[in-house]
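Write out a record, focusing on structure:
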Amino acid sequence: MENLYLLMIVALVALAIADLVVGVSNDAVNFLNSAVGSKAIPYKYIMIIASLGIFIGAVFSSGMMEVARKGIFVPSEFYFDEIMIIFMAVMITDILLLDFFNTIGLPTSTTVSIVFELLGAAVIMALIKISHTDGETFSALTKYINTEKAVEIIIGIILSVVIAFTIGAIVQYLSRLIFTFHIEQKMKYFGAIFGGLALTAISYFIFMKGLKGTPFYGSFKGIVDNNTLFLVGSSFVVWTIFSQLFMMIFKKSILIIVIAVGSFSLALAFAGNDLVNFIGVPMAAYHSYIDWSASGVAATQYSMASLENAVPAEPYLLFAAGAIMVLTLWFSKKARTVSDTEIDLARQGEGHEKFSPNMLSRFLVKSSTQVATYFEFVLPKSLQEKIDKRFEKPVIDLPKHKTYELPAFDMIRASINLVVAGILIASATSMKLPLSTTYVTFMVAMGTSLADRAWGRESAVYRVAGVLNVIGGWFFTAFVAFAAAGTLTYLIYIGRGAMIAVLLLLAILLLVRNYVSHKNKVKLKMDKSGLKKTESKTVQGIIQESAENISNVVSRSNKIYTDMLRGLAKQDTKKLKKSKKGVKKLNDEVEELRDNIFYFIKNLDDTSVRGSNFYIVILGYLTDVVQSLEFISKASYKHVNNNHKALRFNQIKDLQEIDRHLEQFLNEIEDIFNKKEFERIGSVIENKDEIFESLSNKIEKQIARTRTEESSPKNTTLYFSLLLETKDLVKALMSLMEEYYNSYKKK
């Protein structure tokens, strides 16, 4: 039996390493986003600053046993074997839960997940003990679980979400009124004072949150506690002078220093305080094993009261943990995926929206718009105009429209994000309130985005839906953490070593699956073979660049159409489903080009405005092509998936003949646009009647078959639909060719 517990310790150590990786991937959003989104500092330097913060915070961290002895459960009420089951269930659940959120790109709270996992596992183990104890009922649960602490944590979660969002919005609104979007001019007069305030707040945050609990904090704790006002005042004077000298000497904005120091402080606090979320439970298990081994008492009889005592941290362990966290920060692609979610929701400009609107987001946006309209009637018009002027954004003249090269938001907003998050976390820590750094940093960023008018009428419904999805994910985390950890606890209790082996194997398989899934998504996102936005300013350039997109659409349409007919002939739902996905991807790319029309027209030269009409018409025909493919793919999949009768041999033979004609036709079009030999278009247009005549003949043959031998109405409906949509597809392609040929001749 002792060997089993030793193997459990080894497994917990391995899980701790994996948990560090997925934990950093999730929490990197807390300290990277402001610097990355504002582009105040090159990405390489941001990573170096964050790495230093993480490593220093991890090495000087202490209180490794905090989670295990915070009062979520009462250790003295459990025996060693029960504690080990709880810890094993918690770690397996934690790594899978965090990795799931990282894979889908949503930030969640490592603190909340570990707390609710401990709570869920402890509750189930307590219920098992109660069921085996004579005279104890469900009410005895309070003897094992600290329910008061659990309620306090839930209230803390809700309050942190509301307070962080509200204060972030208020501070950002006032800051924008002072600095406007023309920060270069305002920083000359107010930069030193702003830098002094911001750096003072961040310094206070480093001492109160980042270094609290380290071995060095005790030596100056008394000085900080007894002279807080003096230290804050002195710090403000020093930092204000420093800010002024920095701007005078280096001719750069002090906001760069604010963002750098703020990122360092949040990274420091994350590693110094949240490290316990990843290795605290394995450390508690390790010390439990050491105590039990020395006791000589049976595992089922040894009480774990020793967990209530303070346990010193091992420097080598902290050093190793810090190194793993830094390496994860540099090499984890999931960390960037989670970061991108918050940056996309907070960005100032328009662009592709990741989230789809829902009923609640529409209601909130509509209600907010009505409230804003009410205030417009109440406030004097002159005051409204003055406020609106403070929020006027500078016009950035770029040689080409490349929104993705611009910062998501400016340095004022990045600084406010860091300062406000730091102050809120420090204040909560000083009042000993439960708080999630992820919740605070995310909601502050969302509040500042709203106040900065980043959520306009064009994007608000999508951004609000995104925020609701993330918040919903947080509460989902708590529920799933509790339920999953409790379930695993029961399974391990009844299955012991064999069940642990099965669960560990399942965890490995799920982690590998999530890794492959995320890798494929990233690969798909980086795929350059999709449709490209036209950036040319002249008609000639538009014709040349559009040729690549037409060739791309024609090539993919050819393959999709052929695959659909093969899937239909073989009744292969997998092939048809794959074709549906291919059509959807193509449709999304065409839709993205249509969404870019506004910027395309704005970017044109005055002498080339007629090119906009050509481009819009071409996009219209491409849309028609994709819509025909979409109808064919859905109809084919629905027919096969519903187990309707397969198409008759003659019908399949006719469709294959059409496919051969269409393939030759599409291959020729693709070759023309690949080689940009547009003079060949004329000969294709001249032969268009041939393919139309072939389709018409097939329709007449099916009419004759229907009157004499056809017995399946579903087959007849599907077959006619395929022929008619194929005809529409060819019409759209012919119209596109004619438009292209006419514009080419005019050029």
